[in-house]
Amino acid sequence: MVETKEYNFETKKILSTLQDWVEVESPTFDKDSVNRMMDLCSNYLAEMGGRLERVPGKQNLGDCLRASFNETSENYNSPGILIMGHMDTVHPIGTLQKLPFRIDGNKCFGPGIFDMKSGNLIAMEAVKMLMKEGDLPNLKITILITSDEEIGSPSTRSLIEAESLRSKYVLVPEPGLPDGGYVSGRYAIARFNLKTEGIPFHAGINPKAGKSAVKEMAKKIIEIEELSNDDRTFSVGVIKGGQWVNCVSSECFAEAISMAKEQKNLDEGSSTILDLTRNEEGIKFTVEQGVVRPVWEPNEGTSNLLAITNSVCNGLGLPFSHGSMGGGSDGNFSGALGVPTIDGLGTLGDGYHTLNEHLHIDSIAKRSNVIANIIKQLD
Q1: DSSP H helical segments within the chain, as ranges?
Q2: Cα(288)–Cα(253) distance, rounded to whole angstroms?
Q3: In this predicted model, what pLDDT tens digit does every residue of 217-255 receive, in sequence order?
């Protein structure tokens, strides 16, 4: 068993900072809002004493932050510890009116609080605590905060992969598993852009003379979702079509996502949906593949990280379990590259991506201690 130390994390103080963060809404596609969140995070990281870099956003998305700690002449050019998380959320501006920051018993609610602003914060608090107590390892520590994870990291994947390849270990404070466990692998994920093109006509005169792109997309959505089986799933979550209700729609757009436990199953599903592209009876339907997250299967390095985490949990008197899960994270990229990665280090809670998103307050200090003790053991 590794030597563990229980640090005194101030939950009330952490919740106060977290409230400030949650009340800066930061949906992915709102670049200015994401950057306001990055401003707040920049101040926090600067106050910690990190060497801070702001990476300008691409593809009209928000900026990223890279903060370096514990750099010495001996470790500056050596692979270190990478902690990475995202500050973008799925919640549109105005969600705070429906889901305000509030505390109810052991639960604390707010948009993005569980996925994953609280995880980012406790990871930073863990590094801060190790600095305060003089317990940092010999390795340098890099904290990377990105801006587009919720849409598959299209603009940041290259940055994430470059940072991962420069690292010896990757820690991802995404939400923990429902049983309090940790994530040791992620399913493969692919996104697809769908488009139907029809023939417009005046809907009030003779709608049958046209070919409705919206109607055809509705049929295609059912067809695509019925491709789901035990090996892979398909789901359509975005649809936009038509401009005037009195005109048979000429265009309709949708987005689909597929998830599979194994890469071969995702690849088979991708081939199936891409083969649906066709042009017949006045209707054109096209499918283009979008962002892909590769499957992450644990290697020996990840197994060693899990063993350290198990020992840390035992030393702290906390439960330990691990497993692969869906949902995707930037850990897909580091894990698929073979860099030892452990995910799901964040707080415990429920309801992320819903209007019931919350964390369990009593998990804040516990999970902060786990992260701090893991970092402390790495060499």
Answers
A1: 11-22, 31-48, 95-98, 118-133, 157-165, 213-225, 263-274, 300-316, 331-336, 363-377
A2: 11
A3: 999 999 999 999 999 999 999 999 999 999 999 999 999
